[in-house]
Write a structure and sequence with these properties.
By secondary structure, the protein is an alpha+beta fold. 31% of the residues lie in helices and 19% in strands. Strand 3 and strand 4 form a beta hairpin.
């Protein structure tokens, strides 16, 4: 990997629990969104019917499955739907990935108790989320400097590896230490397209009232 000059490397060993089992390894799932290629790997099981309901028929129609002829195909993998829902939520959050992950995780946890461990990357940053299975990260400050996330440390010593807790989100970028959000589901969602103009209008009204009140005060004197 070091000789390849790549900035990010991912690998995934699959124990098939959903969808097609004849494919040697469909992870990472790849999708092009917002001018970037996104890669995703999931360690867990989520109900496909629940994910499809959360995503909605229109978005599903606009984004065909990676595995399977259509979204009703039994070969569809839950992880593919999981990735698509995270990207949809991220798009709704104006491509703020942390907010998008928080929104997706919060909505899923209300209707599905399955494990949601995953990694997501846009080729520049890696996000790792923990819920239901083990997830660790490691940061090397010495040359070559690098960060790693993994389901478990590669050896029994676990030297330098830090275990994440449920709902922790770790973000890995080049030349920076990993950053942790303790509970990503508590991050406020961005204002919706409808809410934002209402907030702007409310701010204008408050400002106008303030100016009017200030003018009345000055006129008294």
């Amino acid at each position: 990997m070091a000789k390849s000059q790549a900035h990010i490397g991912v690998c995934h060993v699959r124990a098939a629990a959903s969808g097609a089992t004849s494919i040697p390894n469909p992870h990472p799932f790849m999708r092009n969104k917002n001018g970037k290629w996104w890669a995703f790997g999931h360690n867990g099981v989520l109900a496909k019917t629940t994910l499809k309901s959360l995503i909605g028929s229109q978005y599903l129609a606009e984004n065909p499955p990676t595995v399977g002829d259509n979204w009703d195909d039994p070969d569809v993998v839950d992880s593919d739907l999981f990735m698509l829902y995270i990207l949809k939520c991220t798009e709704e959050e104006c491509w703020n990935v942390t907010s998008g992950i928080g929104k997706a995780a919060k909505n899923i946890m209300h209707v599905d108790s399955g494990s949601m461990n995953f990694f997501l990357t846009d080729g520049e940053t890696i996000w790792g989320f923990c819920r239901g299975n083990t997830l660790y990260y490691y940061y090397s400050e010495t040359s070559p400097q690098y960060s790693v996330i993994a389901s478990q440390p590669p050896d029994a010593s676990q030297d330098g590896w830090v275990a994440l807790s449920d709902f922790n989100l770790v973000t890995l970028t080049m030349d920076n230490q990993p950053s942790i959000v303790v509970d990503v589901t508590t991050i406020p969602e961005s204002p919706t397209i409808l809410t934002l103009p209402l907030l702007i209008m409310a701010a204008i009204i408050v400002l106008a009232l303030y100016r009017r009140k200030s003018g009345l005060v000055r006129n008294r004197f």
